[in-house]
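quick one, 270 residues, struct below
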Amino acid sequence: MKKWVLGLSILAGLCISTQVLADESSKMYRLYNPNSGEHFYTASNAEQKKLIQLGWYNEGIGWYAPREGIPVYRLYNPNNGDHHYTMSAAEKNMLTNLGWHYEGIGWNSDTNKQVPLYRVYNPNNKGAGSHHYTTKVNESQKLIDLGWKNEGIGWYGVQSSIPVKDDKTKELIETFKGDYYTSTQTTPEFSIDDNYFIDHSTNKRYLIKTLTILQDIYPKLYIVWDVDAFSYEYGILPPEPQPFSFDLVKALGETNYSLQDSNWNLYSRR
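---
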């Protein structure tokens, strides 16, 4: 089983290309500077790791960007350490004329407009982190309720965010991932992989946020979904209950254990 002095100016000097994209999409890493309050976004795994070493918080994958699409420009303000991202060439040119450093194309926006990135602005913040971008409606609305200004949609991704999982969840995923069958099935009823619970009967994927085990009559495996991610992918809220649980009907130390749902259906991993 697997176990699993903050700098602002360093970003301007990390001349790392963010144009190296995967075959279909690029992971867009999201990081947070607890000193300045700035969120930073990059397609570069090397840049992500460098900032984590400098004390930035890893907030996982903010969204997935398409390999091709409308360019999103990245700019840096050397006076206050702020970064800005925009699809607007006019906005980019205005900021460069004001002294911002143009850092090239950070990523692309999806021309099919599948997953919106909401843009909000803090009018009381004149330093780093004055803008924020998120795929989550609840996150943007919470900031608007606190006085941030809604600036609409900044750009579009092709898949929404995957949050950072806690170490215990990572361990449990390694323990439980696989395909699960009833005794009469030749195809799996559901599967668990590194990120998703996949319901093959409905062909829907539920992004796993946390896994926990609680002791009852039997130990119970609780799976909590990322509701926002499901809503973006399918346009509806995930079905109740949220979260739900399985009874573990064999000891964790055994290789061939089974999961039993609330309707007494038994599923074995093969």
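Residues 1-23 have pLDDT under 50 and may be disordered.
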